[in-house]
Design goal:
Largest sheet: 6 strands, mixed
Strand order of the largest sheet: 1-5-4-2-3-6
Shape: globular
Number of strands: 19
Number of helices: 13
Length: about 450
């Protein structure tokens, strides 16, 4: 990787070309050095990709080479790292995962000892150390050992925070053949739910493959077939969730956040407003405005949402993609916790009865592009975006942004009608394809 290492959510790329064991080792050494302390204690968790053990080993070697002691917790949801690093008083946690990406990709992201993702300044320090020559001597070498009981620690934390009685509730879980495959079914069983589970047999290559939060068609069908009241679909590392109601209608992170926001306000637990990203539906903002709930808008990425929550002292934030942050539990997106919070918010109601917001039509087109940073200098594109937003003023909006995790430019348009949204998106996509040599892709 010759460009900046860290994207929206850690370091991510194609294994063997963009993300190599050599990079993982150097990154582990640099991140440990950035802590600036003697003998730091560092946790590593991973998802179910076949490249996970290889990159885990390389990352652990780099941490140990920098004098850190490594605890390997194995396959766990990403948010479990944030739980465990605080519970055990560790100095840092690293997660080997590419979230919702295909199995051939992988990634590495870090959490501080307080359970938050690294801020921009710390990431810059890690990149500085990564680019520097490593020390010649290994006078202090850390140890690498297994951490036992990590999954149980995470499950106990969930049950303590959400002591629900789900007896008699029929729920379908799509585990994306990823990190939720053990944790999600187990916590719902412990709470008494009658569950049907799909995509919970990871083989190293089937993570996110036609399943999970980026492919919810199977979940929709299974919910209707099983006569369930709701279904939840997690992504590969279980830090996000989407849901489906009893009649098979999907509901995204905006709708989950809206339901929970109303619930927390009714209980006097909202502590102000909610934080969402620029991708949130125009209808969400309308609903919150009508309810008198303040909304703060951030850049894409749940760490930016968290920063806004901390700035205001609020407790709830979310992304349309399904990252839901509930700070009384953990300061990062947690799909399983969000599903349980949703069940608490619904109470005895079914999801289709919860009138939390009305979405306006939204068109999202992903354009595959070799150099996603090239959009910064695309003057005609930005002039067209400005013109489209002028025409949509007070009725919708147009947004164009480079993905922080994939070689994509995302074109998103919201308008009162689907046709108008499609037309505006089509004009913008045409410019991206013509001027930036892009092509429409199927990436989530």
């Amino acid at each position: 990787m010759t460009r900046r290492l860290f994207g929206t959510d850690g370091v991510r790329g194609r294994v063997g070309t963009e993300l190599t064991p050599e990079l993982a080792l150097a990154l582990g050494r640099a991140a440990t050095g950035a802590l600036g302390i003697d003998r730091p204690q560092v946790l590593i968790v991973r998802d179910t990709r076949e490249s996970g053990p290889m990159l885990e080993a390389a990352l652990a070697a780099g941490i140990a080479a920098a004098g850190g002691d490594v605890l390997l917790a194995g396959v766990l949801p990403t948010p479990a790292a944030a739980i465990l690093v605080r519970k055990h008083g560790l100095d840092m946690a690293a997660v080997v995962s590419a979230s919702h990406n295909p199995f051939a990709d992988n990634g590495i992201k870090f959490f501080s000892g307080s359970g938050t993702k690294l801020d921009d300044g710390t990431e810059a320090r890690v990149e500085e150390l990564y680019a520097a020559d490593p020390p010649d001597d290994l006078a202090t070498v850390g140890r690498v050992s297994e951490m036992n009981g990590a999954l149980e620690d995470y499950l106990r934390a969930l049950q303590s925070q959400f002591p629900l009685d789900l007896a008699g509730r029929k729920i379908v879980l799509d585990c994306a053949n990823g990190s939720a495959s053990k944790a999600a079914p187990e916590i719902f069983r412990r709470l008494g739910a009658e569950i049907t589970v799909i995509s919970d047999e990871p083989d190293g290559r089937n993570i996110n493959e036609d399943c999970g939060s980026t492919h919810i068609e199977n979940l929709k069908a299974k919910v209707v077939e099983a006569g369930a009241e709701i279904g939840f679909a997690f992504d590969g590392d279980a830090d996000r969730v989407l849901c489906v109601d009893a009649v098979g209608t999907p509901h995204d992170g905006d709708e989950i956040t809206a339901v929970v926001a109303h619930h927390l306000r009714e209980r006097g637990e909202l502590s102000g407003g909610v934080a969402v990203t620029v991708m949130s539906n125009y209808g969400f903002h309308t609903a919150m405005d009508e309810a008198g709930i303040e909304v703060a808008t951030t850049k894409v990425g749940d760490r930016h949402v968290l920063e806004e929550l901390q700035r205001h002292g609020w407790v709830l934030g979310g992304e349309q993609s399904g990252h839901i942050i509930y700070t009384p539990f953990v300061p990062t997106g947690d799909g399983i916790a969000a599903a349980l919070l949703m069940m608490r918010a619904l109470g005895d109601r079914h999801l289709e009865e919860a009138d939390s917001m009305t979405r306006i039509p939204q068109t999202l087109v992903n354009v595959v592009i070799a150099d996603r940073e090239a959009i910064e200098g695309a003057e005609e594109l930005w002039e067209q975006v400005e013109a489209e937003n002028s025409g949509l003023r007070d009725r919708g909006r147009a947004l164009v942004r480079a993905s922080g995790t994939e070689p994509l430019v995302r074109v998103m348009v919201e308008a009162p009608t689907r046709q108008e949204a499609d037309d505006v998106a089509g004009r913008l996509v045409a410019i991206v394809e013509r001027d930036l040599d892009g092509s429409r892709g199927s990436h989530p």
